[in-house]
Design the sequence.
């Protein structure tokens, strides 16, 4: 589940500012892979540079991009570029040429490389003269905050559990409608698809349509039950052929046994073998009886379900069927990718003037903000809503609505939420005064899960 999100946003950067110039390019090069990044919709060309790349590992990486490697090839032919992004270490660099000439995408390209990829960005002449600190865009749809939709049940369906017999469903990636119903009948998938990067991706390559196990009534009943569970959840917004660009990896309406479309890591997430608490979830009492893994219950399944034990048994059985063992997934293995990297991030001290100045002005780097936190230095980094975005120790937070304009650095005074924003902390009254000489945590996001600045500053 959510594999495509993890595939593209591999890890968050561990720094807040620019990374410096590109490293020296190793002479060793297995070849190149030319593809369209389904996330950004832009052309890219990657070379496999360094002594630790092999033909097998480079071929597999290119296969992950749904392309075939060109052994010995380079990206030199691409002259119109936004720059280069270098991932990895000197003996195993993934050296990516970002193809294009649209200067309006420079800031989001740099962000994608450095913050979402954990790499080093070297701008071309197109992007070299631009200041990413003034960016107001992320290159992604703006996160639309979940809303509770209450609708009359479809003709022929029983009365709902909500007021006046309505069916009430949160429009959120971690939400579910009532058991036995279909999520897309009662909530907006368009809203949900703004809450995670979405694009189409293929299933496991050897996915079997004619699975003889489906002739076993007991086995087929379990497969059909998990399908009804998934159909009631927001998973169908991306993992279904109804998704606007096609399904993302596995899909619930796959012919035959849809479980064959899962990669082994997805099965392990379903079995609770990998901690997926970083994806966020609603409390069961707010989610029509459905729930999934949380940081407090890391061995529960990634799937939003009314029966954790049954889901885990189904996915464990699939892993056993494929000969996959639990020891292939080490303890403390996290499944939420960059969401986990954000949740577990270890901040360092601010530099470049970031923080709250003597006159209360708040300064940060790498673009305008939609979410701004000033927290106690002991606070954990905020994660994703609905349950991870308000850690303990938040002194002041404001949010910009998805229809509003992001707020530039230097335009905000501590404790004064800008016009058109919503103050989330404190809910009532004003933010507490900062104590001179005390250290605090500044956390600024261009959007949910897209940090600009996250560092410690000392109050003047």
Sequence:
């Amino acid at each position: 589940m959510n594999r495509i999100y993890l595939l593209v946003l591999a890890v968050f950067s561990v720094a807040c500012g620019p990374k410096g110039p590109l490293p020296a390019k190793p002479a060793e090069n297995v070849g190149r892979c030319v593809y369209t990044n389904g996330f950004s919709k832009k052309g890219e060309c990657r070379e496999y540079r360094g002594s630790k790349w092999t033909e097998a590992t480079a071929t597999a990486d290119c296969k992950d991009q749904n392309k075939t490697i060109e052994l010995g090839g380079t990206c030199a032919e691409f002259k119109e570029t936004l720059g280069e992004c270098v991932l990895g270490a000197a003996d195993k660099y993934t050296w990516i040429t970002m193809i294009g000439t649209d200067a309006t995408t420079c800031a989001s390209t740099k962000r994608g490389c450095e913050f979402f990829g954990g790499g080093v960005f070297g701008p071309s002449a197109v992007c070299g003269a631009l200041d990413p600190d003034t960016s107001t865009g992320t290159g992604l749809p703006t996160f639309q905050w979940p809303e509770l939709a209450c609708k009359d049940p479809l003709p022929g369906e029983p009365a709902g559990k909500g007021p006046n017999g309505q069916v009430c469903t949160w429009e959120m990636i971690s939400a579910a409608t009532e058991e036995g119903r279909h999520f897309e009948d009662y909530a907006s998938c368009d809203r949900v698809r703004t809450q995670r990067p979405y694009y189409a991706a293929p299933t496991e390559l050897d996915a079997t349509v004619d699975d003889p196990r489906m002739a076993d009534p007991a086995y087929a009943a379990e497969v059909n039950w998990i399908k009804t569970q998934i159909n009631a959840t927001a998973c169908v917004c991306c993992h279904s052929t109804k998704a606007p660009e096609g399904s993302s990896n596995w899909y619930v309406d796959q012919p035959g046994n849809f479980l064959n479309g899962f990669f082994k890591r997805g099965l392990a997430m379903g079995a609770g073998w990998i901690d997926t608490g970083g994806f966020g979830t609603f409390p069961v009492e707010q989610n029509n009886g459905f729930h999934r893994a949380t940081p407090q219950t890391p061995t529960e399944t990634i799937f939003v379900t009314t029966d954790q034990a049954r889901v885990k048994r189904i996915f464990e059985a699939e892993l056993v069927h494929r000969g996959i063992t639990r020891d292939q997934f080490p303890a403390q293995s996290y499944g939420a990718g960059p969401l986990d990297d954000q949740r577990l991030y270890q901040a360092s001290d601010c530099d470049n003037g970031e923080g709250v100045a003597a006159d209360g002005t708040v300064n940060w780097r790498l673009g305008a903000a939609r979410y701004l936190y000033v927290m106690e230095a002991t606070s954990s980094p905020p994660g994703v809503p609905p349950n991870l975005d308000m850690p303990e120790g938040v002194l002041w937070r404001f949010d910009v609505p998805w229809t509003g304009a992001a707020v530039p650095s230097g335009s905000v005074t501590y404790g004064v939420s800008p016009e058109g924003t919503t103050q989330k902390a404190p809910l009532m009254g004003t933010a507490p005064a900062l104590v001179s000489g005390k250290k605090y945590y500044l956390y600024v996001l261009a959007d949910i899960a897209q940090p600009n600045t996250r560092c410690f500053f000392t109050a003047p």
